[in-house]
Amino acid sequence: MVFGLGPSELLVILIIVILIYGGKRIPEIGHGLGKSIREFKKAKNQYENQHDVVEKWLNESPVSETKKVSSANGTDKANGSGKSSSEEVKEKINRIR
Q1: How far is it, in rounded angstroms, from Cα 70 to Cα 37?
Q2: What pLDDT digit, counting tens, does each position of 2-44 carry?
Q3: What does the alpha-carbon distance between residue 26 and residue 63 come to, in Å, rounded to a whole number?
Q4: Using alpha carbons only, what angle is made at residue 29 by residues 26 and 34, rounded to the nearest 5 degrees?
């Protein structure tokens, strides 16, 4: 049962749809629906891949820098910028956006 509808109700709805749109137009509607679902999945996968790349980059980049951080004042000795590694990560995230 789909949405609480039995087979007889679905058959009646299908007959009404065929009468309204005609037999030739139903495949076009199905094709358009399938195409939109594929595009949605493609966009979702692209977003997930980008998110994974950014997350991997953020996890790898600060690790090497945090070993060089001075414990006295929290500044990065490697580049002499005077910024803590957490500030640099925030800047990287803002650059990505």
Answers
A1: 52
A2: 678 888 998 998 889 888 888 788 888 889 989 999 999 999 9
A3: 56
A4: 125
